[in-house]
């Protein structure tokens, strides 16, 4: 328990503490004396300002002490500690919490944890999951080895297809013949995420002439989420290739507007009020082979 009154001899050992701080710090970076703090009986910490440019607000803390009934004060430890206004690095966050969508690059591996809430056991038809599954015994043994390296490798050997009519075949048809499948929680978080990006509350959907549920470019998906989502297949839509809420919509809706037809050309006008002379034969035919420029052309009149 801390003593409220600093030990007198320890409190007076300011110069001893300053020398210890100067020994630990870079020359000329131990600043003004701040104060003394009583840590315990005959244990006092002296604080000095740190004048290192990168350590604004930090303090050199030199703890001095003495033995019971002894008059000699000695240095216990010298450390650099942050003061109340110290410039500090942000709190450290584990990589798994720092990871953001889009961070995964080619060749990166992001193994899902065995306890991942987004997943739950599927029906594989086998007693044990594939060896590369996070819930397999092999992977758990590997994870238990400290500093185990995880390296990319070829996928596990393909399983033989189940016999028609077996439970495994039905499970495969339902998309459940995997070591793990999406849990209810995993479905919910995926649906929330998709709805936020391409849902009814987005500005695009609010201004759309109609929703995706009536759009010819919307492709249905399988599974329980088909009741609320589909995939947009319109290359001109901002959601092309994305999972969209059925309540989403955009201006490229297949029935958004009827394209105006190009104007039809006017029918040809036949003028029946004048006579148009049309030569039946060319000039050479009319002169037996020699052209007479001034010969009158045989003409036929139409009325
Ligand atoms: S084109 Fe627009 S309305 Fe049609 S499915 Fe895609 S996002 Fe929905």
Give your account of this protein's structure:
The chain has 303 residues and is an alpha+beta fold. Among the domains are: 8-82, Roll (Nuclear Transport Factor 2, Chain: A), CATH 3.10.450; 116-128 and 159-182, no CATH class; 184-245, no CATH class. The protein has eight helices and eleven strands. Strands 1-2-3-4 form a four-stranded antiparallel beta sheet, covered by helices on one side. A three-stranded antiparallel beta sheet has the order 7-8-9. Strands 5-6 form a two-stranded antiparallel sheet. The N and C termini lie far apart (129 Å). The model is unreliable at 294-303 (pLDDT under 50). Bound molecules: iron/sulfur cluster.
Provide a short characterization of the protein structure.
Helix content is 19%, strand content 18%. By secondary structure, it is α+β, with helices and mostly antiparallel strands.
Lay out the secondary structure.
Layout (H helix, E strand, L loop, with lengths): L7 H5 L1 H11 L5 E11 L2 E8 L7 E8 L8 E9 L12 H4 L20 E3 L15 H8 L22 H7 L6 E3 L1 H14 L5 H4 L11 E3 L8 E4 L10 E3 L32 E2 L3 H4 L12 E2 L3
Antiparallel strand pairs: 1-2, 2-3, 3-4, 5-6, 7-8, 8-9, 10-11
Iron/sulfur cluster binds next to loops.
């Amino acid at each position: 328990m801390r003593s409220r009154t600093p030990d007198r001899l320890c409190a007076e050992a300011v110069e001893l503490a300053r020398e210890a701080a100067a020994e630990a710090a870079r020359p000329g970076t131990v600043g003004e004396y701040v104060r003394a703090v009583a840590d315990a009986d005959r244990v006092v910490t002296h604080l000095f300002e740190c004048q290192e440019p990168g350590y604004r607000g930090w303090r050199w803390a030199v703890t001095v002490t003495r033995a019971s009934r002894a008059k000699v004060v000695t240095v216990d430890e010298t450390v650099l500690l942050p003061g109340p206004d110290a410039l500090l690095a942000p709190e450290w966050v584990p990589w798994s919490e720092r990871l953001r969508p889009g961070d995964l690059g080619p060749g990166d591996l992001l193994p899902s944890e065995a306890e991942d809430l987004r997943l739950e056991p599927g029906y594989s038809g086998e007693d044990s999951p594939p060896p590369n599954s996070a819930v397999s015994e092999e992977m758990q043994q590997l994870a238990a080895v400290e500093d185990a390296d995880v390296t990319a490798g070829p996928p596990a050997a393909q399983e033989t297809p189940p016999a028609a009519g077996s439970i495994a075949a039905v499970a495969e048809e339902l998309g459940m013949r995997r070591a793990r499948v999406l849990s209810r929680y995993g479905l919910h978080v995926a649906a929330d995420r998709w709805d936020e990006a391409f849902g009814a509350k987005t500005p695009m959907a609010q201004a759309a002439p109609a929703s995706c549920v009536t759009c010819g470019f919307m492709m249905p998906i399988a599974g329980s989420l088909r009741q609320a989502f589909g995939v947009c297949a319109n290359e001109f839509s901002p959601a092309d290739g994305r999972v969209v809420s059925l309540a989403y919509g955009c201006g490229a809706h297949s029935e958004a507007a009827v394209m105006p037809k190009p104007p039809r050309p006017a029918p040809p006008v036949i003028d029946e009020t004048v006579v148009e002379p049309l030569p039946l034969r060319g000039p050479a035919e009319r002169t037996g082979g020699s052209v007479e420029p001034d010969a009158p052309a045989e003409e036929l009149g139409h009325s």
